[in-house]
Design goal:
Helix content is about 30%, strand content about 35%. The chain is an alpha+beta fold. A six-stranded mixed beta sheet has the order 2-1-6-5-4-3. It starts with 8 loop residues before the first helix and ends with a helix.
Amino acid sequence: MEHPLSPPAALTEEAVSRVIVFFETLSPAGVAQLGELYAADARFKDPFNEVQGVPAIQGIFSHMFEALEQPRFVVTGRVVQGQQCFLTWDFLFAFQNFHKGVTQTVRGASHLVLNEQGLVTLHRDYWDAAEELYEKLPLVGSLMRWLKRRANS
């Protein structure tokens, strides 16, 4: 039984589908449309950022397009329950300054909480920065791989 204030399941499913399409087709110009999917005071957190408000969240995604070559998301799974959703995804990109043109992949997941209007109020990304990013960087990557080997021996 749904909570009396919960949006109907169809509304939540529709909102999640819109979020998936948005991120899978995100472009630098599309960042401006984030406010159509997120509540004005939405919170976003990932291993590097913790911000609140649509302009701050837009800033994170705008910076992504400035710092990386051809960044894009591919959603690989979704679980929707009530007003919450858990998405698994691959983030594909290329570094600008090294391994130019080589596609990198970060695998992660997002926990989304939606309000009664179907807008995202919380977006929390989970991914292993050490394994998925640091190990791919020159110098830092060598150190991270060495530390991992030491910890596993």
